[in-house]
Amino acid sequence: MPGCFKKTLFALASAISFASFILIVVAMGTPKWMTGKILCKTGAELVNATDPELVKFIGEIYYGLFRGGKIRQCGLGGRRSKFSVFPHMVKKLNTGLHVMIIMFLCVAISFSLVSFGFCILNAIKVPYRAIKGPAGICLWNFLAGGFIALAVTGFMAAVKLHRLTERIANFRENVFQFVILEEQFEDCFWICVASATAHAVNLLLIPISCINFPKIKTKTEEANVTAEDIMY
């Protein structure tokens, strides 16, 4: 039973690592990390818009790591547009930080796959006690979760400290100026947080596999040897 229990834990850890890999890939390819409402400040000031009229100047914006879109409301109806972060927009952003976020997620993808592979190896073979064993799996999960946490923290810093949404909203806007009324993190951002949490769960599962449970032994009956048995 202990062997089956350990194999079950390694199989579960491998499934979690693969799920984390899928979550990161989906999050990176989806253009909805952040959504918000933008006010066309220039248009509202031109007509001295009051509170009821400001609705005509409030648009929407959404974006991810590679692309996004917005709806401009400048008093003449909504105008939809889409944009790509690379290659032009990234020059107006904090280029180093944005590229580091993407690199951190790519490294996390690699470590998630490494963790998945070694979990499978330990599930079908005798676990090694070196870097390939439970300690190694914990290391890969710690690195994967750590890089995801760095990417999430970097994105939050770009949004809150470097005004990422405002920079994107005003990209190539020569006439109108937009201000951010509200912004919120969307599902793709929280998917990355869930991916890091999945690796944290693995860090709890793998040490359990190292526990040596006592084996259940059946008590053998003592044989009664008599003198007649010795003679024959």
UniProtKB/TrEMBL annotation:
A GO CC term attached to the entry: stereocilium bundle
Keyword terms of this UniProt record: Membrane, Transmembrane, Transmembrane helix
Membrane-topology descriptor: Multi-pass membrane protein
GO process annotations (BP): auditory receptor cell stereocilium organization; sensory perception of sound; stereocilium maintenance
Keyword Transmembrane helix: yes
Compartment annotation: Membrane
Top-level taxonomic group: Eukaryota
Ranges that cross the membrane: 9-29, 97-124, 136-159
Matches recorded under PANTHER family: CLARIN, CLARIN-2
Family: Belongs to the clarin family.
Protein name: Clarin 2
Organism: Meleagris gallopavo (Wild turkey)
